[in-house]
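Internal tracking record. Fields below are filled automatically when a chain is submitted to the structure queue. Please do not edit lines marked as system-generated. If the sequence contains nonstandard residues, flag them in the REMARKS field before resubmitting.
Queue: standard
Priority: normal
Entity type: single polypeptide chain
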Amino acid sequence: MDANLVLNVLALAISTVALAVSGAAANRQLRIAQNSNLIPVIADLFRETRSSDFLTSVEFIRDRLATAHPGNPAYRELPEDARGHIRRVGLFYDDIGKLVAHGVVDESLILGAYGGAVPRMWELVAPYVLTERQKYGTTPMAYFEDLAARAQIRTMGGVHQALALRGYAPPRA
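SYSTEM-GENERATED OUTPUT FOLLOWS
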């Protein structure tokens, strides 16, 4: 074999390895940049679920909505107070559902954090939202519904198990 050919093959191999390493580094940098842009968005989402307004709305939906407004009217036909609670919670989960459905936010992050609450809240507001859809021919909160369906398939506990989250029982005094 000619020495020139060996040197050319060696140079090609080194160039190929360098190109692969550069591509991997660029891809990693891109992921880091994308994730750093999402941190403020995710922090705002988590902050919202701890706000007193959001928690008040969750409590209203959980404890009083069905008894205060039986018969499942369209949610736009409810009094402003009830409608506001449904919008606050429903549109919050709808917005998160958009981020998940479009692959902007990792599904496991959202389902690991909210997976238990999403289907419960959907089950409580669904009769009003579904009546709204049927009566007015609209599709409000479709992403919320999708997120609830995802949470039924990939449960919060399943996400925690896949992440190998560990427990810690503090020592007794």
